[in-house]
Amino acid sequence: MEATNRPTFDSETSAEIYEYVERHGTAKRNVVLDVVSASAEEFREHLEQLQSRGYIEDDGGTLRVALDVGAVEEHETPVGQVVIRPGRQADFEGVLETIRDVTARDTYVVAESVAEQLLHEDAVTRHNRVKSRVFFVAVRDDTVIGWTHLDLPQLSSLQETAQLTVGVHEECRGHGIGSLLLRRGMEWAEANGYRKLYNSVPVTNEPAIEFLDDHGWHTEAIRRDHYTIDGEYVDEIMMAHETT
C-alpha cells in the first residue's frame, strides 16, 4: 500500500483488524484474534483480504501495516557503510534515542514533539484515515544514527504539503549523512506528489537553518516570539522547499 493512499475497508471486521495493528505498530496474530469481534474463521478470511489488498503483512505470526515507502540504499561514508532505508517498528528505540541526542544539543522543538508522539503512540509508522507518518533511518552496524520523518496530512486540502524533520547523531555529523537523509525524504515526497515541504526551527538553531538553506530551502515566514526557551521569547523560522 502506498503512503498516499487512504485505507478503505469492506467491513467493520477488516477495519478493526487493520486499526489495531496500525495503532500498535506490530501485533501478534493470536492477540489480534482475541481482541476483534469475529470468529476464528471470519478473522482468517478478513486478514487474508487485507493481505491480498496490500494492507497487512504477516511475518511468521507478527502482523504489521504493509506500507511501501521505498527501497534500501547503501552508501560509503567517512564513518563506514551507512544504510538508508524505511523505518520500521524495530527501530523505535534507536529513532527515539537519536532524536533525543539531537534535541539535547540543539533546540529543535518540532523534533521534540515528534519524539513525544512516538512515546505516546508507541509506533514508528502511522497510516490511517486521519494521519500518516513515515520515517527513513540511517543505520550503521545495525544502529540507528539518523532519521528523516515526514508527517503526511490526510485531509484533501493539505495532501500536497508535508512537515519534515531530520537529524543525525552527534558522533556521526559532518560526513554527509544528514544530506543523504534529507535528499531521501525530499525525493520521496516529490515522487509521491507533494509540492511543498516544511521544517520549522527556532532562530537560535543557526546550524539547522544553514543546513536547510544549503539544500535549497528558504525562509517562508517568521513567527515572532513563538517559543519560550530558557525563559526568553524566541522567533520560529519556518523553512520551506517546493518540489516542483
SSE map:
Elements (H helix, E strand, L loop, with lengths): L11 H13 L1 E3 H7 L4 H13 L3 E4 L2 E4 L7 E5 L2 E7 L5 H14 L3 H13 L4 E2 L3 E10 L2 E11 L7 E8 L8 H15 L4 E7 L3 H9 L3 E12 L2 E11 L2
Parallel strand pairs: 9-10
Antiparallel strand pairs: 1-3, 2-3, 4-5, 5-7, 6-7, 7-8, 8-9, 10-12, 11-12
Helix pairs in contact: 1-3, 4-5
3D structure, described in words:
This protein folds into two domains: 54 residues, Arc Repressor Mutant, subunit A, CATH 1.10.10; 170 residues, Aminopeptidase, CATH 3.40.630. Helix content is 34%, strand content 34%. It has seven helices and twelve strands. Strands 4, 5, 6, 7, 8, 9, 10, 11 and 12 form a nine-stranded mixed sheet that branches. Strands 1-3-2 form a three-stranded antiparallel sheet. A hairpin with a 2-residue loop joins strand 11 and strand 12. Helix 1 packs across helix 3 and helix 4 runs antiparallel to helix 5.
Q: Could you name the CATH class of the largest domain?
A: Alpha Beta
CATH topology assignment of the largest domain: Aminopeptidase
| Class per helix and strand makeup | alpha+beta
Query: Could you state the order of secondary-structure elements as H and E?
Result: HEHHEEEEHHEEEEHEHEE
How many alpha or pi helices?
7
Q: Name the shape in a single word.
A: globular
Write the CATH homologous superfamily of the largest domain: Gcn5-related N-acetyltransferase (GNAT)
Could you say what the CATH architecture of the largest domain is? 3-Layer(aba) Sandwich
Radius of gyration: 19 Å
Q: Which ranges are low-confidence, i.e. pLDDT below 50, for 5 or more consecutive residues?
A: none
How would you characterize the largest beta sheet?
9 strands, mixed
End-to-end gap: 24 Å
